[in-house]
């Protein structure tokens, strides 16, 4: 870029400068293009040509000078060149002769060479033909092998063969027709293989659906057997007195030879899946498998309308169990055919349908045993599928929701049974004649020590309804435990106890109260009913121990527990109601005899020597009452009944004296009542001691129940009745008497009956003094009131 301005300055300096510049450029071998272009651009090409010509002349002069200086050397060189030329001519002649001779000799060889080239061409063609034939034969043989594999249903080697043809030979087949045919038939063969494996798989779908129920039944049977073994182990553990470890006796699923028991073939599935993967359409088959199995599940879970659910639930649940056992096996062994999320989704869908069916069917059931049967099979289903990893929380929740419905049905059934038992009982002491009867009705419920065997016939202290009711209660406990023992739920003792309380209170106690208040039982029957209630109340401890045993609570812990049955207190109250009913019955019967008081001559002129008729009847009845009660009732109950009867007799006599039916009465009539009371008191004291009640330390004896009427009679027969108003004497001798009652009775009291001419002449001084004292008492009572 910097040289160009210099050249322009040389050119512009004149022709001499231009010539020197050209000479320098030519000597240096540089490009003359820029100088020539500049000369034409400046319009001076003639100067350029002139300078070039002068340069040529200079060079010619230089050449001539050079030739002149080296003339001799040049001559010598020309002479040598001429010598070389002569030698060259001789060599040429010799070469020409040799060439002619060579051509004559090589003509035959050239012919042979042409033949050789032709043979080489033929050989090459034959080689190419052989190679072509080998490829064609190989392809043909591979196709034949592929057809053989397909015919033998060996689809995997058939596909490998097709892949070999497609990748190793297809592009190298030289025959266009054969290549076109191969290209056409490979997809057709693959499609044929796909149809074949799909056909096999569809056959497997039909087969496995038929097998699913059997698979489920076998697996559920295994679960049932394992549960039985577990219960036996727990039972032995309970007998040993230790709490069973809930982790100690569990079915070891991993060590169970599942394959030998649940024998079903998944080969068509594996093959179909593998073939589809080889065909590059594995996702298509996975989708096909999932949709078809889901369709099968929906069909399997349709409830039969022609068959009751009680009969169809086992096949239905077994079918579901078998379905998911197969799916779990496919998930584990089919190399990605199913994903865990797909199996979980399918199980959740099925579980939702199952729970919906169960809730609907449970709500329709009206028999507890039916509901328990379905629940047991549902729990077996849960146990079965849970060991394969399926979650069963919803199943447990359905069972939990239905426990109240189940126990309501169970309570209703027990109510009907207890109604029938109590209604059909004769309420007579049960006579046991055989040892097995004793064991079944007494020992089985621990009414007597197990090591005591009485003489037969044995008269039990209860009627036949007691062991029958105990059997129903025991069955109720067993059924309740059976329903509540599902899954890992082992802490249901309190729940069972709650339902047991409901049975004893809402069913048994209500029925007993109905029997008590129905007033359809005779005295002896009511006594036996009261005795039955006492035994049933004591049996509550046995019920609790049975609950604890079945719930896995050790006996020592159950006995140490402070939470007993509320029903025991309720039955105790009902027992008291029965005693009150007995007292009412006894009083009612006594009232029939006390009516005879109306026949007593209250103004008799002479003191009687014998008791009144009513008292004889009352004593006969009391004798029967005490002897019957002594055989049936506990001493406490006997005390209540007889004490009530004694108090009622006292009240009846007092009421008679207070009523308007007795206008007045005399001392002689009072003496008759005194004789009655002494006879009754003697009877009361004798029975109080002979029955053993005196050993109980009771503060009030049977005689004490007559204290009011006794104090009244003593007051009326007292020589100084006015002492009643003395607080000290009244508290000591008349503390049970009421002022108003005393005032009414005293107002009716006359010392002796008035004769036709009066009675003043018949009175002695002692009688007059007593009359005066009585008059004083009457006045003071009137003043007090």
Which regions contain 5 or more consecutive residues with pLDDT less than 50? 1-14, 241-260, 755-761
Mean pLDDT: 82
Percentage of helical residues?
over 70%
Q: What structural class do the secondary elements suggest?
A: mainly alpha
Largest sheet: 2 strands, antiparallel
Looking at the structure, what is the overall shape?
rod-shaped
Output the strand order for the largest sheet.
1-2
Strands, count: 4
Bin the strand percentage: under 5%
Given the structure, what is the number of helices? Answer: 29
* Through-space gap between termini: 160 Å
Rg of Cα set: 66 Å
Descriptive notes:
The chain is mostly helical. Helix content is 74%, strand content 1%. Strands 1-2 form a two-stranded antiparallel sheet. It has a two-stranded parallel sheet with strand order 3-4. Helix 1 crosses helix 2, helix 9 (267-278) packs antiparallel against helix 10 (282-300) and helix 17 (465-484) runs antiparallel to helix 18 (493-517). The radius of gyration is 66 Å and the shape is rod-shaped.
